[in-house]
Amino acid sequence: MTATVSFTIDSPLGPRTATAAYERKGAGEPLLLLHGIGHHLQAWHPVTDILAAEHDVIAVDLPGFGVSEPLPEGVPYDLNTVAPALGALCAALGVERPHVAGNSLGGLLALEMGRIGLARSVTALSPAGFWTEGERRYAFATLLAMRAGARALPRPALERLAHAAAGRAALTGTIYARPARRSPDAVVAETLALRHATGFEKTLAAGGSVRFTDDVPGLPVTIAWGTRDRLLLRRQGVRAKHTVPGARLVRLPGCGHVPMSDDPALVARVVLDTARSAATPLRA
């Protein structure tokens, strides 16, 4: 069941109140799940039950995505604002320093939360921010084309496409290696989420100059990349490993950019292994 939480964020305009949607289930140490740009918390549904067997799982719609409200007028969608805002969201839910797993934009936010002390472990699945300028331009052009297609397609046509395997591939083949595994209802819902994402353009604009260049010391970090990622190419994982040398770099065979649907068991195992390692003291 989706609920909402309001929390205060610091911004260049001073304190502002934001409201976000989330789903919460399970028990144990808290685990925050962050989706990518244009997506919604339901991206994590293929793995949520597995994770909830060991954790208090909190999946959120990022501000301006899914059914979460946009950030207050004038508040930027940049890394320096959104990552601390997620910490404030956790505090409003009574959670301190959760494990954090994120995909794409969510992976970048997870790493930043780890860097500034807001996470006890980080799992980043194909995180943004490790691109060359050419790779960034390619990814942004692809995302803009997906957004334009989602906005142009009439609802009846979308539903017809989603009910055919070839149609699901046409709609979501850029982000999934196995789009036929997505249910028609899930494909319709995520296409509508992309269509209605109020934070899309501002997030993309804020990401134009983003490069993640700092280490994330003192906590377990896993960076995982699908071998069939067509949006953020897997060689970016090597750059991520150089940037965060203590991170574990994991290949996700046969997975695309959003791997939770392509191989739920593998993705869940990667997240759980990372969280479990937080109980083991790190070597100096």
What does this structure look like?
The chain is of the alpha/beta class and 284 residues long. It contains eleven helices and eight strands. The chain has an eight-stranded mixed sheet with strand order 1-2-4-3-5-6-7-8, with helices on both faces. Helix 2 crosses helix 3, helix 4 (133-152) crosses helix 7 (184-196) and helix 5 packs antiparallel against helix 7.
Give the helices and strands, then pairings.
Layout: E1 3-9, E2 16-25, E3 29-34, H1 45-52, E4 55-60, H2 79-92, E5 99-103, H3 105-115, E6 121-125, H4 133-152, H5 155-162, H6 165-172, H7 184-196, H8 200-207, E7 221-226, H9 236-243, E8 248-252, H10 259-262, H11 264-277
Parallel strand pairs: 3-4, 3-5, 5-6, 6-7, 7-8
Antiparallel strand pairs: 1-2, 2-4
Helix pairs in contact: 1-11, 2-3, 4-7, 5-7
Notable characteristics:
41% helix; 284 residues; eight-stranded mixed β-sheet
In short:
This protein has 284 residues and is an alpha/beta fold.
What proportion strand? 15-25%
SS field, number of helical segments:
11
N-to-C terminal Cα separation, in Å? 42 Å
- Could you tell me the number of beta strands? 8
Counting helices, strands and paired strands, the structural category is alpha/beta
Low-confidence segments, given as residue ranges, are none
Helix content class: 40-55%
Q: What is the string of SSEs from the N terminus onward? A: EEEHEHEHEHHHHHEHEHH
Using the CA coordinates, give the radius of gyration.
Answer: 17 Å
Net shape: globular
Q: What's the story with the biggest beta sheet?
A: 8 strands, mixed
Task: Record the strand order, biggest sheet.
Answer: 1-2-4-3-5-6-7-8
Report the mean per-residue pLDDT as an integer.
95
